[in-house]
């Protein structure tokens, strides 16, 4: 197949091969420990996380319409997976639920359910990005100091090791591993200083890639010096080595279809499908906002791709997957231009398992933590906060509420709270947006003219009643509904009550314009 035909069928182009290939290495280095950590937190076999990373990288990248999103096992699903495996009783049975969840997602894609992603408010999406940035900063600080009790990719405030994000910080300061701290500081200096390099050849190399090599080099130097400062394996990436503790055949676990008679399977499948779909839609929407080229991902196509990915992952022993914001952000920050980067990162995961696991097991967690810490800062920088504040309270309040909710709960709960805050904000604004009154042009003694909005719902009744009650005695008021397309019965009733009773009591002259059709509709005399 020619390159042009391959690009037509898959959407993958080699036009930006240098950028995409270098970025794929960085994404791979970050994704690998995340895959293992999420599998560990899910109570699943370690390789199940890598299987999902490979399927998400290769299969979903080929089928997806997103150019920069990266799919794999999601930290947000870890608790659901852990409980589901316990409820079903064994991992092979759980895999059936993953396959069924993929089928449901595929159906949702054909039913065009992906369009729900277009209804997420921008303030909530930006709040989600900022919250993830804050969590990345908080959660990576312990790893920066060499306190690696929690897995690297955890983004939950409450941890599985009887600590939370804040107590882990205290523990980290009490258990500093100085070599890890040295590596982290040097790594951060490189990441920050890389933008000041003027040589284009050097600058074209992603700084995170340099950080990893420097971290490995520093630890190798301490090993050679024999001064006792070298990091032990618990502070280094640890992926299983084939031939030592497992065989190639053990990489794959297959579903046990005998559990299809168990009702729990279907509950778990529906739960995974809904949660994974929402996380994917949110992640893709967020990645699109970060895309320098502002490309839009076809959301229904994304659901179909995720569905096929989960079906395949479940069939060969993988965890459920979603598009993952952290990996997508690292991908963008590393200079990726197209989906080739996500595809190559999946290929690299295969290579890592089969060929170079011992080399990769030399990478310090401190180096990866510095990369994620820097990524967190880019997501939650001060300029974003200032920008949202300047937009005004209607955007700023849902933005802040979303941040706080996600940081102290989890991604989905926080998003739901943020959406509720956004809807409440709209309702409050709608309640106030009953009419327009030009105070500047109004002169004392002239009639008060209230021009009703296009849509006046029952939510506007309280505002209207309050306004009418405040009209002074002996005044004249003109209530103009000629531009209104809809006025709720409750509002009409309140205006009629004021006209027939309240206004007469205060000697107020009322003139109604454009109310005839509404009177007929509601059968007023």
From TrEMBL:
A GO CC term attached to the entry: membrane
InterPro entries with a match to the protein in the record: SLC26A/SulP_dom (IPR011547), SLC26A/SulP_fam (IPR001902)
Classification via Pfam families: Sulfate_transp (PF00916)
Positions of the SLC26A/SulP transporter domain: 17-401
UniProt key word Transmembrane helix: yes
Transmembrane segments: 21-40, 46-63, 68-85, 91-111, 123-141, 178-197, 209-230, 265-287, 308-330, 342-360, 396-428
Compartment(s) of residence: Membrane
Keyword DNA damage tagged: no
Domain of life: Bacteria
GO BP: any one term: transmembrane transport
Membrane topology label: Multi-pass membrane protein
Keywords on record: Membrane, Transmembrane, Transmembrane helix
Main location: membrane
Name the UniProt record assigns to this protein: Sulfate permease, MFS superfamily
Lineage, highest ranks first: Bacteria, Pseudomonadati, Bacteroidota, Cytophagia, Cytophagales
């Amino acid at each position: 197949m020619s390159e042009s035909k391959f690009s037509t069928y898959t959407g993958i182009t080699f036009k930006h091969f240098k950028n995409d290939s270098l970025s794929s290495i960085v994404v791979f280095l970050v994704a690998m420990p995340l895959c293992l950590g999420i599998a560990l937190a899910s109570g699943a076999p370690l390789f199940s996380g890598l299987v999902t990373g490979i399927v998400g990288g290769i299969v979903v990248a080929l089928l997806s319409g997103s150019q920069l999103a990266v799919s794999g096992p999601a930290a947000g699903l870890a608790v659901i997976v852990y409980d589901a495996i316990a409820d079903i009783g064994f991992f092979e049975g759980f895999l059936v639920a993953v396959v069924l969840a993929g089928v449901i997602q595929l159906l949702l894609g054909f039913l065009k359910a992906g369009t729900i992603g277009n209804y997420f408010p921008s303030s909530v999406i930006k709040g989600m990005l900022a919250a993830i940035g804050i969590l990345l900063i908080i959660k990576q600080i312990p790893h920066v100091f060499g306190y690696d009790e929690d897995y690297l990719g955890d983004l939950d405030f409450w941890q599985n090791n009887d600590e939370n994000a804040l107590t882990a910080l205290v523990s980290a300061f009490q258990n500093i591993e100085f070599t890890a701290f040295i590596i982290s500081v040097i790594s951060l200096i490189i990441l920050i200083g890389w933008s000041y390099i003027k040589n284009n050849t050097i600058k074209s190399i992603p700084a995170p890639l340099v950080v990893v090599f420097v971290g490995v080099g520093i630890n190798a130097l301490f090993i050679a010096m024999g001064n006792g400062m070298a990091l032990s394996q618990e502070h280094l990436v640890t992926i299983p080595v084939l031939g030592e503790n497992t065989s190639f055949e053990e990489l794959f676990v297959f579903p046990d279809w005998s559990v299809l008679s168990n009702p729990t399977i279907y509950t778990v499948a529906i739960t995974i499908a809904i949660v994974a779909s929402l996380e994917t839609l949110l992640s893709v929407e967020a990645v699109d906002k970060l895309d320098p080229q502002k490309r839009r991902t076809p959301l229904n196509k994304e659901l179909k791709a995720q569905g096929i990915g989960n079906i395949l992952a479940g069939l060969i022993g993988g965890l459920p997957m979603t598009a993952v914001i952290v990996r997508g952000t690292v991908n963008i920050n590393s200079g990726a231009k197209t989906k080739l980067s996500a595809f190559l990162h999946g290929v690299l995961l295969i290579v890592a398992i089969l060929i170079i696991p011992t080399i990769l097991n030399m990478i310090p967690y401190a180096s990866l933590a510095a990369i994620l810490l820097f990524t967190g800062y880019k997501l939650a920088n001060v300029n974003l906060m200032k920008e949202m504040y300047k937009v005004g309270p209607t955007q700023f309040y849902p933005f802040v509420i979303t941040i706080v909710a996600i940081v102290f709960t989890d991604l989905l709960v926080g998003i739901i709270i943020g959406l509720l805050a956004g809807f409440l904000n709209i309702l409050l604004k709608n309640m106030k947006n009953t009419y327009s009154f030009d105070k500047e042009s109004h002169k004392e003694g002239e009639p008060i003219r209230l021009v009703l909005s296009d849509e006046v719902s029952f939510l506007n009744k309280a505002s209207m009643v309050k306004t009418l009650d405040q009209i002074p005695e002996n005044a004249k008021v003109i209530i103009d509904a000629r531009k209104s397309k809809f006025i709720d019965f409750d509002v009409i009733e309140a205006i009629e009550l004021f006209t027939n009773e309240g206004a007469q009591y205060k000697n107020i002259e009322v003139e109604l314009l454009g109310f005839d059709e509404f009177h007929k509709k509601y059968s007023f005399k």
